[in-house]
Amino acid sequence: MNIYCITLNGPAPWGFRLQGGKDFSMPLTVSRLTPGGKATQAGVGVGDWVVSIGETNAEDMTHVEAQNKIRAAEESLTLTLSKDDQAFYDHQIYQHEKHGLRVDGIPMFIPNDRSKKRLIEDTQDWQPRTGTTQSRSFRMLAQLTGTDYMQDPDDETMKRAREKFLTEIKSPRYARLRDWHHERSARALNIKS
């Protein structure tokens, strides 16, 4: 595990985005870097874990708490980060109940292989899409809301629905309903007594 500390001179933008947090049961990690941005120039890499923001331990921070802490930094932003070292994973040294570890007094996350794989998959899923494909997050949302079976109506269905509507508005029943509605609205607005 390669732990390092950087100080970015303000003001924002700092040139990176985060993902994860206590509320996502994932460590806070750098998910994107702005090319040529302050974070890139300081040597931050995508996938680096955030150990602390300023002097505050990031281990128990939610995503929003981390964002607010970063936004509050005006003149400078100090981050303690750690880069991935595969040998450290192989030892599987972490606390199972908190999924965290303290190395040399510095708190950090050591995720298991499953959470590391999820982090990589989530980052790859954020790439821009071509055509009509949907991101995994939208597919998951559709499954949660029960709308994943729904499809866009085809041209034939739309044509039949439009023909039915046009037929109905020409019917005497529609004319009576329209006249009743106009009269009722006029009374409600005190236009007609």
UniProtKB/TrEMBL annotation:
<keyword id="KW-0206">Cytoskeleton</keyword>
<feature type="domain" description="PDZ">
    <location>
        <begin position="9"/>
        <end position="85"/>
    </location>
</feature>
<dbReference type="GO" id="GO:0005912">
    <property type="term" value="C:adherens junction"/>
</dbReference>
<dbReference type="GO" id="GO:0030018">
    <property type="term" value="C:Z disc"/>
</dbReference>
<keyword id="KW-0440">LIM domain</keyword>
<dbReference type="GO" id="GO:0001725">
    <property type="term" value="C:stress fiber"/>
</dbReference>
<keyword id="KW-0677">Repeat</keyword>
<dbReference type="Pfam" id="PF00595">
    <property type="entry name" value="PDZ"/>
</dbReference>
<dbReference type="GO" id="GO:0051371">
    <property type="term" value="F:muscle alpha-actinin binding"/>
</dbReference>
<dbReference type="GO" id="GO:0031941">
    <property type="term" value="C:filamentous actin"/>
</dbReference>
<dbReference type="InterPro" id="IPR036034">
    <property type="entry name" value="PDZ_sf"/>
</dbReference>
<keyword id="KW-0479">Metal-binding</keyword>
<keyword id="KW-0862">Zinc</keyword>
<dbReference type="GO" id="GO:0003779">
    <property type="term" value="F:actin binding"/>
</dbReference>
<dbReference type="InterPro" id="IPR050604">
    <property type="entry name" value="PDZ-LIM_domain"/>
</dbReference>
<dbReference type="InterPro" id="IPR001478">
    <property type="entry name" value="PDZ"/>
</dbReference>
<keyword id="KW-0963">Cytoplasm</keyword>
<dbReference type="GO" id="GO:0007507">
    <property type="term" value="P:heart development"/>
</dbReference>
<protein>
    <submittedName>
        <fullName>PDZ and LIM domain 7</fullName>
    </submittedName>
</protein>
<dbReference type="GO" id="GO:0030036">
    <property type="term" value="P:actin cytoskeleton organization"/>
</dbReference>
<dbReference type="GO" id="GO:0061061">
    <property type="term" value="P:muscle structure development"/>
</dbReference>
